[in-house]
Specification:
The structure is a single chain. By secondary structure, this protein is an alpha+beta fold. The protein has one domain: NADH Oxidase, CATH 3.40.109. Helix content is 44%, strand content 11%. Strands 1-2-4-3 form a 4-stranded antiparallel beta sheet, with helices on both faces. α2 (22-33) packs across α7 and α3 (52-70) packs antiparallel against α8. The protein starts with a helix and ends in a 5-residue tail after the last helix. The mean pLDDT is 95. This is Bifunctional F420 biosynthesis protein FbiB.
C-alpha cells in the first residue's frame, strides 16, 4: 500500500524566496475544492496573497492583535503563553504565498431546531457539535496541503492568526457576506531538506474496533 503522498506532508515554517507559479496555485485550489462537503455546500473561499509587503503587514496585524489581547489577561503565565505563541502565529511572513481560507454559512439541524423553537436551546445546540461547516473547510485545506506536498511545496496549517481575522479581512479588503477567516497556510519551497516530525500516537492508542 503506497501512502507516501500522505507522509510527505509536514509543517514547514521556513521557505526559499522562489515564487510559486500562478497555475500551480490554481491547481492546488482545485484539488482543495474536490474535498468532501456536507450537503455539497462547498462553503469555502480561498484568498491568495503573493505581495510580500502585504504578507508582512498581515504578520504585523497579528502581532498587534496579540499585544492587544494580552492586555485583557491578568495571569502572568497566560500572558507569557500568549506572547510565546506569537512566533508560531507569524511564520508565514517569510513565505512567497499566503493562502487564507474562509468559511461560509452552513445550515445545520441545530439551526432548524432553534428556528422552530420547540426544543430548548440547550438541547438543540447539542446538534451543532459536529460543526460540519468547519469540517468542510478542514477537509478542503487538507487536500491542498497534501497536493502541495506531493509537488514538493511546503505548507503549515494555521489557525492561531485567526484571532486577528476581522482586522486581516479589513486590511485585504475581502468582504463576502457570511464568510469568516477560518484558517490559513503559507506556501513555498521548503528552505531545508529535512523537517522534524513530531512523534505520533501509536495507532493502537487511537483506534477502537467494534464487531
Amino acid at each position: 500500500m503506497d501512502l507516501e503522498f500522505i507522509y510527505k506532508r509536514h509543517s514547514v515554517r521556513q521557505f526559499t524566496e522562489e515564487q510559486v507559479p500562478e497555475q500551480t496555485i490554481k491547481e492546488l485550489i482545485k484539488a482543495a475544492t474536490y474535498a468532501p462537503s456536507g450537503k455539497n455546500q462547498q462553503n469555502w473561499h480561498f484568498v491568495v496573497i503573493t505581495n510580500k509587503k502585504k504578507i508582512a503587514e498581515i504578520a504585523r496585524i497579528v502581532e498587534r492583535k496579540n499585544a492587544e489581547l494580552c492586555t485583557y489577561l491578568c495571569d502572568e503565565t497566560k500572558i507569557k503563553g500568549l506572547k510565546g505563541s506569537l512566533p508560531y502565529q507569524t511564520v508565514f511572513k517569510a513565505a512567497p504565498v499566503l493562502i487564507l481560507v474562509y468559511a461560509g454559512p452552513y445550515y445545520t439541524i441545530a439551526d432548524m431546531l432553534l428556528a422552530d423553537g420547540i426544543m430548548s436551546r440547550e438541547e438543540a445546540i447539542k446538534y451543532a457539535n459536529p460543526n460540519p461547516g468547519i469540517q468542510n473547510i478542514a477537509a478542503a485545506l487538507e487536500n491542498l496541503l497534501l497536493a502541495a506536498a506531493s509537488l514538493g511545496y511546503g505548507t503549515c496549517w494555521m489557525t492561531g492568526p485567526t484571532h486577528a481575522a476581522e482586522d486581516i479581512s479589513a486590511y485585504i479588503g475581502f468582504n463576502k457576506e457570511g464568510y469568516q477567516l477560518a484558517a490559513m497556510t503559507p506556501l513555498g519551497i521548503p528552505a531545508a531538506d529535512k523537517v522534524s516530525v513530531p512523534p505520533r500516537k501509536p495507532v493502537e492508542d487511537v483506534l477502537t474496533f467494534i464487531s
